[in-house]
Design brief:
There is one protein chain. Helix content is about 20%, strand content about 35%. It has three helices and 14 strands. The strands form two sheets. Strands 1, 2, 3, 4, 5, 11, 12, 13 and 14 form a nine-stranded antiparallel beta sheet that branches. Strands 6, 7, 8, 9 and 10 form a five-stranded antiparallel beta sheet that branches. GO terms for molecular function: serine-type endopeptidase activity; signal peptidase activity. Its EC number is 3.4.21.89.
Length: about 240
């Protein structure tokens, strides 16, 4: 009896075969891969901000996490900082073009699905049905504008305000007054269609946003990918996004 027990203990202590150990590693990697796929495609969105269009809320070069679940099961709200599908870069001529109903590159007809997807990060300003206006409301000293993009012989720069349904909104996140000169920085007077949103960058004087998108200036609900919650890189800028 004792001899049989010793044999059982001995057999349990035998090292696992190479193939058995390899199979265990394959299972671990497979599970990890599936988990990563689900996480990245259905739960979170990981994005790098290449430009300064959202400064000082999100600085150029920062990396952020957004929640896909928020827009999958919740609502888009005014003031959200959101990741959305802006358009595509054609793999033939490298032209970047706005997402459109035709589903092809307007320059050479190449299908969207065969081109590189371009995502933007902007703030939700106009909600479905909103009357959005950007109007000149005054002037400020040119010295108040860090990256002055207009010339002024008087030393003054025309600036403006965003109005939603006739009421001026307070935008404490803007790093400086918003230039509105009716030319390079246009005035806006639009009504947002149902199921769409009007998106603008926080750094208004350095943001290629809905003011400059021409006729296709709204983002459809199904193109809203994720609500941005956290900046995680660089570490000195890490924190919640508001």
């Amino acid at each position: 009896m004792q001899e049989e027990q010793d044999k059982k203990k001995s057999s349990r202590k035998k090292p696992q075969s190479f193939m058995g150990e390899l199979f265990e590693w394959v299972k671990i990697l497979l599970v990890a891969g599936i988990a990563a796929f689900i996480l990245n495609n259905y739960v979170i969105a990981n994005s790098t901000i290449p430009t300064g269009s959202m400064e000082n809320t999100i600085m150029a070069g920062s990396r952020v996490f957004g929640s896909r679940l928020h827009y999958r099961f919740g609502q888009v709200e005014r003031g959200d900082v959101a990741i959305f599908l802006y358009g595509y870069q054609c793999r033939n001529d490298h032209q970047i073009y706005r997402e459109n109903d035709k589903g092809v590159c307007p320059y050479d007809g190449r299908e969207d699905k065969r081109n590189q997807v371009i995502y933007y990060v902007k703030r939700v300003i106009g909600m479905p049905g909103d009357h959005v206006e950007v109007k000149k409301t005054g002037e400020v000293d040119a010295g108040m504008i860090k990256k002055l993009a207009v010339q002024s012989s008087s030393g003054k720069v025309p600036v403006g305000t965003v109005y939603i349904n006739g009421k001026a909104i307070t935008e404490s996140y803007l790093p400086e007054p918003m230039i509105v000169d009716g030319n390079q920085f246009p005035e806006v007077d639009v009504t947002v269609p149902e199921g769409c949103y009007f998106m603008m960058g926080d750094n208004r004087n350095n943001s290629a946003d809905a003011r400059f998108w021409g006729e296709n200036q709204f983002v459809k609900r199904e193109k809203m990918l994720a609500k941005v919650y956290i900046c995680y890189w660089p570490l000195n800028r890490a924190g919640l996004i508001h």
